[in-house]
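Trying the structure run again after the queue cleared.
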Amino acid sequence: MTTAASPAETSATSLLRFATAGSVDDGKSTLVGRLLHDSKSVLADQLEAVELASRNRGADSVDLALLTDGLRAEREQGITIDVAYRYFATPRRRFILADTPGHVQYTRNMVTGASTAELAIILVDARHGVVEQTRRHAAVAALLRVPHVVLAVNKMDLVDYAEPVFARIAGEFTAYADSLGVPEVTAIPISALAGDNVVTASATMDWYGGPTVLEHLETVPVTRDPAEDPARFPVQYVIRPQTAEHPDYRGYAGQIASGVLRVGERVLVQPSGHSSVIERIDALGQSVDVAWAPMSVTLTLADDLDISRGDLIVPAAGATGASQDLTATVCHLHDRPLTPGARVLLKHTTRTVKAIVREIPSRLTLDDLSQHPAPGRLVANDIGRVVIRTAEPLAVDDYADSRATGSFLLIDPADGATLTAGMAGTAFAASAPDQPVDEASEGWDF
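Done. Tokens:
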């Protein structure tokens, strides 16, 4: 039996997922384009296409924003509409970036792009400072528990690279982020158009001694000790070959969502509560005695239990309770409103169950973080609190404790459309207090 390589041994090829956000015309796409161009991550044919598009728009120089604004409507209007994903790498790290829209009506797109991000870059125009949309994006980053936030004060060339301008904006934003509970803010003065402090250190801002954007992206810690998190293993597939060679083999395949699992450890199967011991862990065709998130493994247990897709295997010592009642903060994604009494499907990890929206206690106003009580419904881009009743018990963690097992989706059972993204528990400090469930409310009787 062998032990898989530790996270420290694979750090040289670590992956960072990050998202960009900011107000309209703050230069998000230009920053991303500059990052790709100056890090030599743009292919020759891509650069030629951007040069042609720039000439067709009458630009005097290459418009690097076009590297990410891929939709025709985006290029014609000079704005970002959809979330643009780009993949690139440096010798030190691999990256997946999401360039998200700045318009308020695309808040749901930022939620989509930042939901899996470990870092968010929020841009501010140095001429305008912190504006309403800046505060909105900071609130969304806090809501989604993004662990690292970078404040990129852009267009410093238009304010004569003045240090007091940067210091004032950085101080105001950091104070606001602290009030939201954002754990870490790194402020960097940049000019995406000129390339100052994006990949190369600025020669005109010698008063700034911190890292460039790329240096920070390459060095920000993205790995943590998996043992600090509770182990969670959603079963994705039950392997039963029933061959002459393996007549009684029963393995449970999936990806470890968080934490560490060990051979010999006593575990519980949620929501049934049945108990057993891990007998074997198979990873990449070999048996290992320890495995951790996000490894994909197959477990075999000492006892023959009734386990199927959607069940959650957890250590007996750190098990979470299963319940049919769920209170959560959600962002509504669909153009169809979400209303009390709505019958939906709730997808949590690999499990999908019927559910009903029992109550919508409040809607969050991101402009000033106030709560609008009993809004009656949530429309696209709204963020609010909901009370949900599920047809079957679910073992859901608080989103504050686990982004992987504290999140869920609400799906329209009629056409399979994704309606809402949810975060269980008090995922955001400004959320309204939990409201009691009205047992007399109409809907599916669970």
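Confidence is low (pLDDT under 50) at residues 7-12, 71-81, 429-446. Worth checking whether this holds up in the mutant runs.
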